[in-house]
UniProtKB/TrEMBL annotation, chain A:
Gene responsible for this protein: nodI
Transmembrane regions: none
Species classification: Bacteria, Pseudomonadati, Pseudomonadota, Gammaproteobacteria, Alteromonadales
Organism superkingdom: Bacteria
UniProt KW keywords: ATP-binding, Nucleotide-binding
Keyword Nuclease: no
Domain ABC transporter intervals: 31-280
Species for this entry: Paraglaciecola chathamensis S18K6
Name listed for the protein in its UniProt record: Nod factor export ATP-binding protein I
GO molecular function, one term: ATP hydrolysis activity
Keyword check for Oxidoreductase: no
One family name in Pfam for this protein: ABC_tran
TrEMBL record, chain B:
The family this protein is said to belong to: Belongs to the ABC-2 integral membrane protein family.
Pfam families assigned to the protein according to its UniProt record, in alphabetical order: ABC2_membrane
The protein, known as: Transport permease protein
GO CC aspect terms: ATP-binding cassette (ABC) transporter complex
Species per Swiss-Prot/TrEMBL record: Paraglaciecola chathamensis S18K6
Membrane-traversing stretches: 36-55, 67-90, 110-132, 144-170, 176-198, 234-254
Listed PANTHER family: TRANSPORT PERMEASE PROTEIN, TRANSPORT PERMEASE YVFS-RELATED
Residue intervals of the ABC transmembrane type-2 domain: 26-257
A single MF term (Gene Ontology): ABC-type transporter activity
Amino acid sequence: MSESIGESRNQASHNMFESRSSNQYGNSAGIEVRNLSYHYGKMQALDAVSLTLSNGINMLLGPNGAGKSTLFSLLTGLKTTSRHNVKGVRIKTSTKGAAPKPTCEISVRGVNLQNTRTDIMRSMGVVFQQSTLDLDLTVQQNLLYHASLHGISPKTALRNIEDVLLTLSLNNKLNAKVRRLNGGHRRRVELARALLHKPSVLLLDEPTVGLDIESRALIIKHVRTLTEREGLCVLWATHLMDEVTSADNLIVLHAGQVKAQGISNKLCAHYQVGSVAELYRQLTANMEAL
Amino acid sequence: MTPMTYLYCMNGIVKRDVLRFLQQKTRLLSVLVRPLLWLVVFAAGFRSALGISIMEPYSTYITYQQYITPGLGGMIILFHCMQSSLSMVYDREMGSMKVLLMSPLPRPFLLFSKLVAGAILSTFQVLIFLLITRLVGVEIELMGYVYAVPAIFLIAFFLSALGLMLANLITQLENFAGVMNFVIFPMFFLSSALYPLWKMQEASMVLFLICQFNPFTHCVELLRFALYGQVNEIALGVVFTSAILACSIALITFRGRS
C-alpha cells in the first residue's frame, strides 16, 4: 500500500480558541504541525491537520480510525515518506528554563531529515498504545536498554532509573521480570522508560487503556504533577473523557481532521454543551451517522 | 553525539540481545543439537560412502566428520541469523521495534549494532560447537581457533545482514517460514558444506556452477581454511563483498520500509 504525505490548502481554522497561554507552564514550547495530510493508498488518514501544542497537557480525543496513531507515528518519525520528505510538518522542541534555548524548528522539505530526527528524538518520550517492553528482561534491564539507545552511560542511567522508579512507586520492582508484572505496573514501567532521558515533550498514546481505577489515577496524577513541575509538553491521546480536565488544551480529531482545538471549558461553552463527552458526541455525530 | 554515545548504544543493543539469548536456554540447546546430530549420526552413516581425497586445505586423507565440521559451523550461523531475523519480524509486529527506532542515533548505526550483536552471538555458538566436536575426534589446532574467530564473525555478519534484508522484505510473520525454506535449505545444500564441489561437478555441471555462485559455499570454505590456520583469499573476498552488499541493501530497504 503506497503511503504519502501531502500538503493541503486547508488551514488552521480549526483553532477556534487560543491554546493555553505560554506563561502557565513557562516559556512556550511544544509541537507545531501545519497542514499535515497523510494517506494510505486512497484512504485519507490525516487531512490538513494543523496543531499548536504548548506546554502542559494537550488531550487528543478521537474515535478509532480518527488518525491519532498515524499522527503519533509521524510525530515520532516512525512514519515517513519513501522520499524522506514530510511535507508541511514543522515540529518545534525546546526545554524549560529561564532562558529559552534555541528552538529547533524543522521544515523538512529539502532539509536533512536525519539530523532533524536526532534532535526531536532526544527531547521526546513516548508511551505507545501497544506494550513495547521486553517481557523476558527485568525492569532494570529494559530501562538500561532504553537509556543505552539514547547514548546515556550505564552509571547515569542507573541513577536516573532509581529516581524515576521512586517517583512512580516502582523501586521495589527493579529486578522483577516484566512478564511477572501486572498491567498497571507494566504501564508505569513504560512511563518510567519514556521519562528516563528527561524529555521535554511527552507523547502518550492511550496510556491508561485497560488499567484499573487505581492504576489509572496514579498515572494521571503523576503525569499532571510532572507536567506542571517540569513544564513538559504532553500530547495525550485517549478515549476516556473523564481524563480531560477543564483547563486542558483539547483537540478533537475525527476522520483525519481536527474538528476543534482549544481550552476544554471554553470549547464546551462555545458549543453550549455541559461536558467534554457531549462536545465529543456533537463534533463526531455527523460522521458517526455515516 | 560523541563516540561514547555510540559506544553506549552499541553496548546496550549487544547486551540486550545476549541477555535475551541467555534467557532462552532451549534455543542454545537446539542450535547445538542440530549440527551435532549431523556430525554424529549422519556423518557416521555416510563415512564410508563419501570418501574424501586429499584436497586443500587438508594435507592428508581426512574423516567425513572432519570434512563437514566447517559446513556444520556455517549451518549454526545460518540458522541463528535467520532466527534472529525472524525475531526482528516478530518485534516489528509486536511493536518492540519502535523502541529501537525511537533512538536519536542514526538508524543505520542501530541496525549495524543489531548485526554486530547477531555476529557476536553466532561466534560464541560456533566456538562451543567446535569445542564439542573434539569429543567425536575432530581435532583443531590452537591457531585454527585463532583464525576461525574473525572468519566466523565475518560470515555471521554477512548472514545477519542477509537475514535483516529478508526481514525487511517480509510483511507478515506467517510468510517467514515459507521464505526460510527457499533460503536456508537451498543455501545449505547447494554449497560445499556436506560434499566437496568436485563430487557435485561429477554429478551435474549446472548444480556445480550454482554451488560456486552460492556465497554460502565461500562462507564454508573461508571457515574450512581458517580452521587450518590458512586464509582462502577468494572466499574471503566473496564473503567480505557479499557482507557489504547485503548490509547496504538491508539498510536501504529498512529505511524505505520505515
